[in-house]
Amino acid sequence: MRTLYMKGCVCMNFIYYAYLFFIGSSFASFYYLLAARIPRREKVVWTRSKCESCHTRLGFWDLFPVFSYFYLKGRCRYCGHSLSAAYCIFELVGGIFFIQNGLHYITSPRMFLFYMFLYSILFLIAAIDQQYFIIPDSLQVILFLLLLVDRYLSGASFDKSCLYGLVGMFAVGFLASAMVPEGLGGGDIKLMSLFGLNLGFYNASFVLCFAALLGLLSISFSHFFYKRNLSSPIPFGPFLVISFWLIKEGILQL
């Protein structure tokens, strides 16, 4: 009887995690679509998804998060055009984000909804930067307000560490941009400054270091497997967002 109960618990946990992953990856897929259409001022809600190559409208099974990418072997079902792996990567990360958020804030629906909104904004920032190499100021303003609310909800005081983090990370970003003009953009510097405001200079500096490490790994991977030029620009925003999440949630211990 005890064994049967344990198996039932394991099964229920698996279903719960799978459900969270599916919801998270579905949101991520939608946010990636938003990121593609908003800068081009295209309709978001009433326009069906279509292949960027042959413009054929996509069906449900063509859009099923993660699964459809592997099932179709990373190609359009209709014209065979190769699809960017970024679609699948963002959906995977979105699913993992949602699982972690659901487990961390399972006892507080209010906190769950707040952090889902916060990470949704971060996800949009990462997705837009990945596709267009820009971070809209409107999203930065929303993020600024949300990070202030986050400090209040977490019980952290608004002391000098906030100011030191904001000014310090801005200075680091500005100097890095001055030394390597093609390294960091203005949006990256603003994003780093906001993370400094929220985490303080010490923690935010680790966000920057780990983001740089992820960026180097990405460049190396693209070079060895896709023969991409080492000097090709890469968006830095997604790596900053992932690093912020890892340190913010205590997944990456300092």
TrEMBL record:
GO biological process assignments: signal peptide processing
Keywords attached to this entry: Cell membrane, Membrane, Transmembrane, Transmembrane helix
Entry's transmembrane regions: 14-34, 78-99, 111-127, 133-149, 161-180, 200-226
Membrane topology: Multi-pass membrane protein
Molecular function terms from GO: aspartic-type endopeptidase activity
Domain annotation Prepilin type IV endopeptidase peptidase: ranges: 116-217
Cellular component terms (Gene Ontology): plasma membrane
Subcellular compartments: Cell membrane
Cell cycle recorded as keyword: no
Pfam families documented for this protein: A24_N_bact, Peptidase_A24
Residue intervals of the Prepilin peptidase A24 N-terminal domain: 23-100
Main location: membrane
Family listed: Belongs to the peptidase A24 family.
Protein name (database record): Prepilin peptidase
Native source species: Jeotgalibaca ciconiae
